[in-house]
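Batch 3, record 17
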Amino acid sequence: MDIKRAIITAAGKSQRTLPLQSLVDRDGQTKTALAIIIEEVLAAGIEELCVVIFPGDEPAYRAAAGEHAKRLVFVKQRQPLGYGHAVSCAEEFAGKKPFLLLVGDHLYVSGETRRCAQQLVETAAAENCAVSAVQATHESKLPYYGAVGGRLAAARKGLYEITEVAEKPTPTEAEQRLIVPGLRAGHYLCFFGMHVLTPSVMAMLAEEVAATGSRGGVHLSATLAKLARRERYLAAELTGRRYDIGARYGLLTAQMALALSGKDRDEVLTGLVELLAQRIR
Amino acid sequence: MLVDLITSRDADRRNASLDAYCGDLTSAQLLAECDELDVFRRRADNLYERVRALFFLYAIHRFHLPGRIKESEAGSEKTAGLIPFAGYEQLLHRRFEEAIDTFLAAQAKDGPSDGLCSALANAYHRLAFQTLADQVRRSVRSVRGNQWMFRVGHPADQPLRIRTELLQRSADGTYPILCEQTPVRMDLTHSAWSDIFFLGMDFPEGAKVLNISVDLGVHGRDARPRPPVSAWLRALDEPVLRLTSVDLGASADITALSDVFDFAKDYLGLLKAAVIAAGIVPPGIEGSGQNLAELLARIVGPGRGLELVSSVNDIPKGSRLAVSTNLLGSLVSVLMRATGQATSLTGELQENERRIVLARALLGEWLGGSGGGWQDSGGVWPGMKLIEGVIAGEGDPEFGISRGRLMPQHRILNLDDASAETRRKLQASLVLVHGGMAQNVGPILEMVTEKYLLRCEAEWRGRQDALRIMDEVLAALKSGDIRALGAATTRNFREPIQAIIPWASTYFTEQLIERVGREFGDDFWGFWMLGGMSGGGMGFIFAPHRKIEGQRRLQEIMSAAKHELQHALPFAMEPVVFDYAINERGTWADLLAGDAALMPSGYYSLTVPQLLRTERQDLPPARRAELDKFATACRAKPELRGMVQTLFDRMFPRLKEEAAGAQNLDELLAANGFDREAHEIIRADLKGGRIGLAQNRLPANLVIEDVRPGDVTHTSRPAHKSIAELGLTALRNGEAAVITLAAGAASRWTQGAGVVKSLHPFCKLGGRHRTFLEVHLAKSRQVARQVGLSVPHVVTTSYLTHGPLTDFLATNRNYGYEGSLLLSRGASVGLRLVPMARDLRFAWEEMPQQVLDEQQQKVRDSLRAALLRWATSAGEATDYRDNLALQCLHPVGHFFEVPNLLRNGTLAALLRERPQLKTLLLHNIDTTGANLDAALLGQHLASGATLSFEVIPRRLDDRGGGLARVDGRVRLVEGLAMPHEELEFGLSYYNSLTTWIDVDGFLRALQLTREDVLAGHEAKIAAGIRALAAKVPTYITLKDVKKRWGHGQEDVFPVAQFEKLWGDLTAVPEIDSRFLVVDRPRGQQLKDQAQLDGWLRDGSAAYVESLCAWE
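Prediction for the assembled complex:
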């Protein structure tokens, strides 16, 4: 499977300004979150990028993308009919090819030389099927994420065959449907905000959009649950962590994570220690 | 050999009865088997093998060994085998394993004895139940969907969020209300209590319950049946958890996390259990010191809270329709829906959601310290369903531990299984009633479990039979034959149920069945017992054309029977007939918004008075808006008509009724010889700390030791012929009479409900239910026939029992008793006092206490804290008047019973009838084996004693003093007076209270003569009694008194009273007291209903029957 296209969603009401925030990247350069995400995607061998935005946001996004602006295709989500709807707005761009899907308000810090998106794309290419990145997450965070249930894929550590998908499940539901062998008690595999999906997902989303019409409420999770029943669909635990910059102190945490894994680590650490020492006095 | 009964692969052998195998073994062989079983149970991995071995050990020590030991030691006067106090203490602290080791070590050292057998039986029995209960608890926790709640220990970890629909305000600013309505369940059959967890988990194939969800209304009160149980939930703009139970009239704003776990603080325990079991306040957060407002903020949003209201439409308690479990289910369900734990916010639940509601209800029951069966939340499911045990498979938490799963499976019967026509026909035939009795089913469930695990023959046959009846019932439903259904449920009640537990029926039930049968003949198609026992919820099946008449007549028949038996059996309320309808949708929720967003009307009659007393501007806006909405609804909605009157009555309660009650009490006091002066002295002494629980005790420096062999006379050996002859001659000469003490109200027997114990039909003997009184008269009748002369029989009464006994004996013509039967009315009465907090603390902290199971202990601690607050706020040592008048009075102790015979002229009457009368046999109402035994009478006469007390070798349950040498004098010491609990365990004999009294000797002690008595010298008699009374101590005791309210609800209050006790006469130097050791069947007292089954099984009942001549 050859994955050359990526879709970044950024049209959500509470999400629209987040990719425009500036941070200092691991290389010490000040960039917008959008630029960092674009670099993540390009490093994975992606050639074409599409950003789903709210109408009117294009100029700001072009500016935020900086030198990468010319590579971007913008697609507008005119009505907020659900995350699934946002993705399906890029159906034409995807064009019956597998695609990498990311959310605009998450940043990723890899724990190895390959970046997170690259790990995922390579896994999907090797397994030749849809793969969602997941991270073992404590049950108290379930209200924020979609979660999957399944079993370990044969002989591959960190790779799971997905049997169930639930959007923001309660732990009551999770405990009954989503327990995955090998995880610590009270932990579930929650979405990482990054998927490689097959064209059938776009087809299913289109059906769903048509069926719900202006009522909206088209959720990607529901479609992914269907996908799990139709074709082979895997979850991969990547080496790395995701940072939700929309959460409280999310931007700060993401900045810390970037800084502490980059070239200015010593400088930032020194600053932190000084801050802590002052606080104690 | 016995181990093989547990482990054998052959099912027949495994299901063989223990009793059959023990029958031929000697005591040495039995002891060897016990050794082997004890080793086996210690190493067995399998839970049920272990538990079964424990029950075998219990049964051998309770039923088989005592008799064999006695046979092997016949004739010896051995008193060895005292129960070690250390073991007793270990039992109190629930350290059963250690207690068993302690008792076994004592047995190895001193040899087996009756007392040690009783201790070991008790320890094995309790360890067995503890093991089972622990397993159920583990299973409840490990059900998937419940586990996470035990991990949440901090508000930040709370993963639940309220659904946004519940935060959409109406135009007036009020939040919508989510209302859950749930039917209750009735069991067509529970296959002999097969829903008990322990049974379902060991024998899932036999666990089958056929259960119908019904709507309910009280006939004549409610317009139509509706789901009786409802739960209401909404968001609040205050960071509190507001809980309201409409039926219990209780409401509280909870702001502290610890209060959520304080179950007995108020009447909101069930709502709290639901809040916890639904994960709102997860069980894992208990004791974390975290903040409730923060936790609520995570779920509902900052500054917000939740309000939860429960209502059961005034369905009385004890209906056997699982009202409380279904209410728990309803509450759990509404909370789960509101927090997205069920997909369906409204409408019915999906099957997997119902199952999790069931699991949560089980958890809630466990948290609240109660325990329903696994089918009890049946109302959550629609219509008719077959609930069955499931064999545990790989992946189940129970796999490898028990054969069955904790959670059963539900199969909803379709129209093929029971057509719409059949359902209609069933409703056209069945009359559902509540007989008015509210009894504790707990002991019955324990007996069932025990008999099942022992595979008692009758039990095992009954169980198979019950399963066949289940098939008959299913077949009758399929064919629509309601008459056959009635025959099956009747046979179920008559045969398997009563073969297993005779106590499932009551005299009241038998009367109802008999009267209905007599009146309706062939048109009475059958009886149907609901739940664990009869007397409360019951069903009567009639030919459809007579159902309406059946409803009307049943109400009348039940009321009449209750009226006749109200003093004999514990009734909690007037009997009622229900209207009902099968509910085909199960639990159901609606979202009420806008003008419809109103709580149930009872909620407003409870809360509005308080709101009206508050200045309008001080009310939060949402409250103001709600009041407006409620006022509008009152004007518009017909069901709220009359609300204004209700509110008015609430705010200005009628004072007249209360005054009338108070007058009644004062009249009773005056009529029953209440001594106001003495009462004030006692109050002053109590307040001043001169008397009290601590002061009851003898000085600690007294030497209290066990008696020596010569201090007692053993009577189990065949008496010398001349002694028996002496007694027989006295009987033939008419020199003896019997006094039965019948002043008591059976407080332990009925947990404080207060019935006339002598009139309580406690057991079927000679083919039908017999009262205690009938048993005693039947024994006197047999003696009279043997000696050819009638026996005068005196029954002492009190203010509580005199009226009912007089009426009862008149109606029943003295049970046809041939001799004279005299009632001796008590001549004095006391007024109970609110206890001193000091005495409550002493009772709970200084006296040895039975530590309860973890969760029950928490509930008890919380209850005790509440009672201490009550004592302080009600006023320590003030008169206890806040109850029915009769519950405020108390008898002043059995010391006065014999002196009363002098005061009220009964002795004079006896002496006139029998001038030759020399001896009185005094015994307690519950000492069923006591009679005018010629050999014992001869022994008493030969000794020349004034008083001969009968004592029995002590068993573990014989608590409350004993026979001792106190500073060299042999006397009885009351348990209250023991300076140290441990001393009691050094005493070999326990007082049965049965006393042979030499009339002249006793009169001498009162400085009176027969002539004084016959002449009725009141002043002289009174002076004599006062002088003797001054020589015996006054004890302060705490008594649990029930207060009934609402619809069958009960509270128990410990109140203080004083008493003087008969046994203390043994300490009076001028009275010559002797002590006769008698056999247990003669001396055994029946204090507690839970004793009955053992009493029947160990041969005591047969012994008593052999003494009786019924006709």
